[in-house]
Structures are given as structure tokens and as C-alpha cells.
Amino acid sequence: MGQGLTTTEDMQKLGWRRTAVLSEKGSGRAEMIQGFVWLRLCSWGAEHHHTLKAWQHAERLAVECSKAAQRFPDFEQERLADQLRRASYSVPLNIAEGSTRKGTRDYRKFLDTAWGSLAEVQTALTMARDIGYLRPAEYGRLEALATETSKTLFGLLRKISLAADRPKPR
Predict the structure, then answer these.
(1) What percent of the chain has pLDDT over 70?
(2) 1, part of any domain
(3) 148 and 107 in one domain?
(4) Contact, 111 vs 98, CB < 8 A?
(5) Does residue 63 share a domain with residue 140?
């Protein structure tokens, strides 16, 4: 705790929350409150996803895909352009939502969804290039962003999977 931070209100303003520490009987029931501990919510809280390289790359990809989709023909705005936008938005949104989950298995489900959405983005980009909606240079730039997102997301998936597979201490 920093200097002059003595009140509960001051601690809560900085993202800390007071949580009861419970003792348990052999039956696993909470028997009594033994004390309190301060927990910092941002360890897996709302701001955590901004620090993840996978989220940073995915967010950049989503912005760039949205800009590219705006230049598709009018008749494609509710078809391929919309699909590209929705799939590209899904990647950083699922990384962000998953990072707020308490369990690694739940987090992994959101990362798996992001991984599937990224495959959808890459497919839509390839189709847009083949149809002629993306110039080769623009496709190359977007595909490079998608590849970088794929690498960092795969690394995060691997890290979370290893944590989820570890046996829990008894």
C-alpha cells in the first residue's frame, strides 16, 4: 500500500477489493471468517487484455479489416464485407472477454472461439483478394497482420492450455 492510503475507499479507488479469508472444516464448509485480505482486481480484470500482444494484434487487424471492408462494392456490404467485419471484431472481443474469466478452462473456450474467428477472417480476406476487392499489396498487409495475430494468439492458447491441464493442488 502507498503512503497515506489507509481507508477502504482509497484502496477501492485503486482497484483493490477486500475479501474474507475463510477457514474450512473437513466437510468443506466455510466455518468462520479468519480475517481479510486485499486483492487487486486488475490481475485478471478489465484492463488486463490491453497488455496482451494477442489482443493488441487482433484489435489492429479488426480495425484494418473494417477499413478495407468499407471499400468493398455496395452490394457486398451486407455480405462478405459484413462477414469480414463481424469475424474480425470477434477475435479481440473474445480475447478480452476470456481474460476476465476466473478459470483457465473458461478462458480457453473464449480463445478457441477467437482462433476460429481468425480462420474465418483469413478465409474472407483470401476470397476478397480472389474476387478482386483487395489489391495484392493490401491483401499482403492484412494477411501479415492476420499471421502475426495467429502467432501471438497461438502462444497465448498454448500458455493457457498448459495452465488448464495442470492438476489442482489439494
Answers:
(1) 68
(2) no
(3) yes
(4) yes
(5) yes
Q: Which residue has the higher pLDDT, 101 or 72?
A: 72
pLDDT tens digits, one per residue of 135-150: 999 999 999 999 999 9
Q: pTM for this one?
A: 0.70
Pair 16, 53 in one domain: no
Q: Is the pLDDT of residue 52 over 80?
A: yes
Does one domain contain both 72 and 134?
A: yes
For residue 62, report the phi and psi dihedrals to the nearest 5 degrees.
-60, -45
> Residue 169's pLDDT is what?
58
What would the grid cell of residue 126 be? 483470401
Q: Do 26 and 102 belong together in one domain?
A: no
pLDDT score of 45: 45
Residues 115 and 141 placed together within one structural domain of the fold: yes
List the one residue out of 116, 4, 8 whose CA is nearest residue 58: 116
DSSP of 23-66: EE-TTS-EEEEEEEEEEEGGGSSTTGGGG-HHHHHHHHHHHHHH
Beta bridge partners of 40: 16
> CATH number for the domain including 65?
1.20.1440.60
**Cell, residue 82:** 459484413
Q: Which residue has the cell 477499413?
A: 67
